[in-house]
TrEMBL record:
Family that this chain belongs to: Belongs to the PPP phosphatase family.
Catalysed reactions, semicolon-separated: O-phospho-L-threonyl-[protein] + H2O = L-threonyl-[protein] + phosphate
Record EC number: 3.1.3.16
UniProt cross-references to PANTHER family, sorted A to Z: SERINE/THREONINE-PROTEIN PHOSPHATASE 5-RELATED, SERINE_THREONINE-PROTEIN PHOSPHATASE 7
Example GO molecular function: protein serine/threonine phosphatase activity
Leader sequence residues: none
Domain Serine/threonine specific protein phosphatases: 287-292
SUPFAM superfamilies: Metallo-dependent phosphatases
Keyword DNA-binding found: no
Organism: Citrus clementina (Clementine)
Protein name in the entry: Serine/threonine-protein phosphatase
Keywords: Hydrolase, Manganese, Metal-binding
């Protein structure tokens, strides 16, 4: 641009420079618009200082870079000072202000690719102390107080490697926030490295648990059994925050499987539950459902969810890590010596070398199905990505109760159908009073009579001499359309 015709307007260009320096909100501008402003500023500066050479984009870029370098230098000074501060003496408002300042400084530095993980840990530590006030909150169904800095702030693994209650609260608030954003932005707040560490920590614990976990519950405690969630993250949060409360020394949780698929937030559901498992391994128990298998997750949405959230580069890595976790999930619990919980239901007797069946028993297996025992159940290999057809493991994950007596193959899908007589036999043989299983939602019971239609989230399927059998399905408003953002009702669960 030729500046000679404009030399007479020096005062006007001084005014332009003053407006840019003192009055413009440069923070809110995009990079493209900010470069345009620098171009204007450089042109105006050339007029004011009597420069006659043409201003190019390179000149504006040089001004841009020098300005950014200056800002980054100041941001580093802020961070260095913050790292030396003693935050214990600050009140809540001052601590909150420090978080705001430190967040902005970290974002500036991170955009220069020199963001140190220890600084992220310091920021997380501060955020935990002031709660979730730094993140947006849902007010009347709308987002409030969103900033560009908040969009790019990632979670980090605890510096000491130990999950705390505050870290889980931060995890939940982060997932609440991200659930209203484009799913492709999920990896910006939940890095793959953190996902891997969380899954590994939980898998290590569950790998050591037995196929059927026995809960010895204190008399002053309550046990909450939760059915299928199927990716409905907001309903899981409502269960904790509005209904049952959070796990504690006096409050046990047993989750009956089917955490992923169907809904849009299967990974969020899984990660929150795994975090609770790591924090309170003897108060939170996660069982395997039929959707915690490779075939189901490929067919019913979880794989697609991971591809959207992590892209081609990392989705396979996260998927494999989740499958590794699914293999470790136990299959059943016995609570207080009287309540049996599992995902699908009862199972067939197996006849293998390990059980040393007699010739007559082998012939019986060929002729008719018979009910399996907990002794056989304890020996089954659960550490598989997918379950074999017509096998004890597929029965546990897929079987359904029937009003018709007897035990027979379910010809419509995997597993078995079993009648009230089988429920009575299983309860009596194992000295139990109650079976709570899941697996079937309202859509599976369409057309059933009022006692078994699942519209209340549960149904009593069998009532025998020795006890009862209930089906429990926790996800409300199921099936949800994936574009819905988590409509919530009182989630369904058993408390006893």
């Amino acid at each position: 641009m030729d500046l000679l015709p404009l030399i007479g307007d020096v005062d006007e260009f001084k005014e332009i420079m003053g407006i840019i320096n003192k009055e413009m909100d440069l923070v809110s501008l995009s990079d493209e618009n900010l470069r345009r402003v620098f171009m204007i500023f450089e042109i105006a500066g050339g007029v004011v200082n009597g420069r006659t050479k043409q201003v190019t984009e390179a000149d504006a870029e040089q001004l841009w870079c020098s300005s950014v370098d200056g800002v980054v230098a100041v941001a580093k000074q802020v961070i260095d000072y913050a790292c030396e501060m003693n935050f214990q003496d600050l009140d809540g408002l001052l601590k909150q202000a420090v978080v705001e300042i430190l967040r902005s400084a970290c974002n500036i530095v991170s955009k220069q690719r020199v963001f140190d993980s220890s600084l992220q840990g310091l920021l997380e530590e501060l955020q935990v102390e002031v709660g979730s006030t730094m993140r947006e909150r849902l007010v009347g169904g709308k987002l409030e107080n969103l900033t560009k800095e908040q969009d790019t702030l990632p979670l980090s693994w605890p510096r000491n490697g130990r999950i705390s209650l505050e870290w889980i609260q931060l995890l939940i608030s982060t997932f609440k926030w991200s659930s209203w954003k484009d799913p492709k932005e999920f990896q910006n707040v939940m890095p793959v490295t953190v996902v891997k560490k969380l899954i590994s920590a939980a898998s290590k614990i569950m790998r050591e648990e037995r196929n059927c976990v026995k809960l010895r519950v204190r008399e002053d405690s309550e046990v909450i059994v939760v059915g299928d969630i199927l990716g409905q993250f907001h309903d899981l949060v409502a269960l904790f925050e509005e209904n049952a409360g959070f796990p504690s020394d006096h409050r046990y949780f047993v989750f009956n499987g089917n955490y992923v698929d169907k809904g849009s937030w299967g990974l969020e559901v899984l990660l929150v539950l795994l975090a609770w498992k790591v924090l309170m391994p003897h108060r939170v128990y996660l069982l395997r459902g039929n959707h915690e298998t490779k075939n189901c997750t490929l067919a019913y949405g979880f794989w697609a969810e991971l591809c959207t959230k992590f892209g081609k580069k990392d989705c396979k890595l996260v998927f494999d890590k989740c499958l590794e976790c699914f293999r470790t999930l136990p299959l059943a619990t016995i609570i207080a010596q009287g309540v049996y919980t599992t995902h699908g239901g009862l199972f067939r007797r197996t006849c293998s070398a390990s059980t040393q069946c007699s010739t007559g028993e082998k012939r019986q297996k060929l002729d008719a199905l018979s009910l399996g025992s907990l002794k056989e159940f304890a020996k089954v290999n659960r550490f598989l990505e997918d379950v074999p057809e017509n096998d004890l493991l597929s029965d546990v994950l897929w079987s359904d109760p029937s009003s018709k007596a007897g035990l027979r193959e379910n010809t419509k899908k995997f597993g078995l159908l079993w009648g009230p007589d089988c429920t009575e036999e299983f309860l009596k043989e194992n000295h139990l009073k109650l079976i709570i299983r899941s697996h079937e939602g309202p859509d599976a019971r369409t057309g059933a009579d009022d006692a078994r239609n699942m519209l209340n989230g549960y149904s009593k399927d069998h009532d025998t001499v020795s006890g009862e059998l209930y089906t429990l399905f926790t996800a409300p408003n199921y099936p949800q359309v994936q574009i819905l953002l988590g409509c919530t009702m009182h989630s369904r669960r058993f408390i006893f």
